Amino acid sequence: QVQLVESGGGLVQAGGSLRLSCAASGRDFSRNAVGWFRQAPGKEREFVAAITWSGDRLYDRESVKGRFTISRDNAKNTVYLQMNSLKPEDTAVYYCAARRDSYYVTSARGYDYWGQGTQVTVSS
């Protein structure tokens, strides 16, 4: 079993930056793919970015467009999402999720473990 805890959310002005962290406990998850998703009020949860155990990255180009960077530190059992040039439309609860497999997918259904989420609010 893997427990995931997100942190780093908050209130930021448009154009600002935040770095989200996803810390895993319970067992080593360095071989697991990890993804970040977000859910705005009244909308479905959507894929943001994912990373394999070896560091291959995938982004939702439509929403991220080079502004976000996903990374991981396997020694710390932590995955990060650096978010720059934030926009009001980035406002959402951000979730990290881990798969039992080592390669990523973009569907939320493909992930086995979820954190509780962290709120990101971007003011205009």
3D structure, described in words:
With 124 residues, this protein is mainly β. Helices cover 3% and strands 48% of the residues. The protein has 1 helix and 11 strands. The longest helix has 4 residues, at 61-64.
How big a fraction of the residues is strand? over 45%
Task: Give the oligomeric state.
Answer: single chain
The ordered H/E elements are EEEEEEHEEEEE
Distance between the termini: 40 Å
Number of strands: 11
Shape: globular
Structural class per helix/strand content?
mainly beta
Keywords:
124 residues; globular; 48% strand; mainly beta; 7-stranded mixed beta sheet; 1 helix
Provide a concise account of the structure shown.
The chain is 3% helix and 48% strand. It has one helix and eleven strands. The model has no long low-confidence stretch (mean pLDDT 94).
Layout of SSEs?
Elements: E1 3-7, E2 10-13, E3 18-25, E4 34-39, E5 46-51, E6 57-59, H1 61-64, E7 68-73, E8 78-83, E9 92-98, E10 113-114, E11 118-123
Parallel strand pairs: 2-11
Antiparallel strand pairs: 1-3, 3-8, 4-5, 4-9, 5-6, 7-8, 9-10, 9-11
